[in-house]
UniProtKB/TrEMBL annotation:
Annotated GO MF terms: 3-keto-5-aminohexanoate cleavage activity; metal ion binding
The keyword Zinc belongs to this UniProt entry's keyword annotation: yes
Cofactor: Zn(2+)
Organism: Haematobacter massiliensis
Pfam families linked to this entry: BKACE
Keyword Metal-binding: yes
Gene3D superfamilies: Aldolase class I (3.20.20.70)
Source organism superkingdom: Bacteria
Protein name: 3-keto-5-aminohexanoate cleavage protein
Keywords per UniProt: Metal-binding, Transferase, Zinc
Length: 277
């Protein structure tokens, strides 16, 4: 039997709106409440974005600070992961919240196509973000949208731009990027294990591929991500009532494949993160 499975919940993202699903948490209070429910359902990492007063994505450090404070109060032990993604800001503004020292932050180490735009991650910005994470002792979650991103992350670890062991998330199902293909996932896993034997991995699927990647990752011994950032539905006809409902679906898959769901303590141990307090 594989070890405990870490479940990450991506609670809000930059794109979903209440027009897509009224349960999408937009305000800080909604995000805190939704995350607490997901935490109690079994999530041990919260991947966090913030929105402005109009519900638009922002990298405002003050809003991240208020979210972090609320999550630390209501979800003690939860691993807080900030997004440095490109939809919330440009250039170094994408890392303006890193001095708040979250436990983790997402890091995309290369560019790729998104549905309607190029997701730009130029090398100088990637190096700057990685340097900020080293400075503030933040563990990166490498978001790999392409095989080259996996290889680049291992190079960055080899030359000390990233501190190991790596934690790499394979993102599949984004239109115009890597499709959800199980043979490709297997090659991703083999490549990461060959180039960075001490690395851990996670997988995330977008839209209807979310449950597909949840199952593949759990069955193959990895960790997994769910939540309304990636998918607002339980199935084609049914909107997800909450982030917690999507977490519970991943928990059920863990039970099916006899994978214990990682507690926040186990998740911190797996990821070599300090215990709070």
């Amino acid at each position: 039997m594989a070890g405990p499975c870490i479940i990450c919940v991506a609670i809000t993202g930059s794109l979903p709106t209440k027009a897509n699903n009224p349960a999408v948490p937009i305000s800080l209070s909604e995000q805190i409440e939704s995350t607490q429910q997901a935490f109690e359902a079994g999530a041990s990492i919260a991947h966090c974005h913030v929105r402005d007063d109009d519900g638009l994505p922002t990298s405002d450090p003050e809003r991240f600070a208020r979210l972090k404070e609320g999550l630390e109060t209501h979800c003690p032990g939860l691993i807080i992961q900030f997004s440095t993604g490109g939809r919330s800001g440009a250039g170094q503004a994408r890392g303006g919240m890193l001095p708040l020292r979250p436990d983790m932050a997402s890091l995309s180490v290369g560019s790729n196509n998104f549905p309607t735009r190029v997701y730009e991650n130029p090398p100088d910005l990637v190096d700057w973000l990685a340097g900020e994470m080293l400075m503030y002792d933040i563990k990166p979650e490498i978001e790999a949208f392409d095989l080259s991103h996996i290889i680049q992350a291992t190079r960055m670890q080899a030359d000390a731009r990233l501190k190991g062991p790596l934690y790499v998330q394979f993102v599949m199902g984004v239109k115009n990027a890597m499709p959800a293909d199980e043979r490709i996932l297997d090659f991703y896993i083999e490549t990461l294990q060959r180039l960075a034997p001490d690395a851990s991995w996670c997988a995330a699927g977008i839209g209807p591929q979310q449950i597909v990647l949840n199952e593949w990752a759990i069955r193959k011994g990895g960790h997994t991500r769910t939540g309304m950032e990636d998918n607002v539905r339980i199935d084609r006809e049914t909107l997800a009532p909450s982030n917690a409902a999507l977490v519970r679906r991943a928990v059920e898959l863990c039970e099916r494949y006899e994978r214990p769901v990682a507690t926040w303590q186990q998740a911190r141990e797996i990821l070599r993160l300090p215990m709070p307090g």
